[in-house]
Amino acid sequence: MERIQIKGRDEACPPVSSSRDLDIDEDVEDILSDSLGSMFGLQPINVGSPGSPFTYHYTGIQGSSNYPPTTITLRTPDTQAANWNLHASSIWVSALYLADHIDRLDLPAHPYFTADPTVSPLRILELGASAGLPGILTAKLFPSVSVTVSDYPDDQLIKALSGNVALNDVERNCRTIPHGWGSDVSELLDGGLGFDVILAADTLWNSEFHPLLVGSIAKALRPCPHARVHLVSGLHTGRYAIQSFLRRVQSAGLAVDSMAEYEAKGTTEREWDVEREGEDDGERRRWVVWTVLKWSSLNWSHDQGEQLQLCCRKSGEYDAR
Description:
Elements: E1 20-24, H1 28-40, E2 46-47, E3 53-58, E4 70-75, E5 91-92, H2 93-100, E6 123-127, H3 133-141, E7 146-151, H4 155-167, E8 174-178, H5 186-189, E9 197-201, H6 210-220, E10 228-234, H7 240-250, E11 254-263, E12 269-271, H8 281-284, E13 287-295, H9 302-313
Parallel strand pairs: 6-7, 6-9, 7-8, 9-10
Antiparallel strand pairs: 1-3, 2-5, 3-4, 10-13, 11-12, 11-13
Helix pairs in contact: 2-3
InterPro entries: Methyltransf_16, SAM-dependent_MTases_sf
Organism: Coprinopsis cinerea (strain Okayama-7 / 130 / ATCC MYA-4618 / FGSC 9003) (Inky cap fungus)
Pfam families: Methyltransf_16 (PF10294)
């Protein structure tokens, strides 16, 4: 089905949260989505459409030199027809929420964060990046951090993602690598021990992909107590998909460090509850879940144990006992 672009429109999409402004060229799909939301009171779960321009304004944190107001310009990716089921041709509310609250990563407090160009930089990986908003914003805010943005090896998708990196002038510290979950991660690692922080937004919606995603995370995450995975997921696809993923990560030696539900367009925070009662689809659309994973202290393989020693000797924290 051919997508019809309406020319000459320059209308702003209704804001997903109060912390940013969005400038989007709308097409028929956007207009229909907004109309349905107005008619039925449903909160939008994504913005943009394939190939459309998208401008994100990060308002920053007043008085913080680490989080100044920043503008990110993107083009929403398209994919080959065979890969439309990836749903990579929109910018999802979870990616917007992660970008809005990028300060929760607290990168300047990480033990390996440094502005010294002679020291190996903190390494960040975004999996399932689509347009790459959280990863590119991180690279823009922290030029001393090394960021890798990655998504499925679809030529059109990767071309758009690479173009967004170039468009925001972060090529010096942000690279684009195609990666199919569950496949070899050597190109992602690029000779390193792994990534200190892994980001993923709205990647848990299909439980069939969970084994592959967990495999990539386990192979790409640096084997170190400081390493963290930040997963932000919209609740529009249900709670049990997220719970299924949590069960899966345990077998990979990972554990939940923290987990909470957040109102996507508000400030309310509440505990995660897989069996929360009294919510329909409209209510679920109002929330995202932010999950932080870390390595469990149990079940280290021999190779992981050796890398753990190498990793932590740098900070003097390794205890062989």
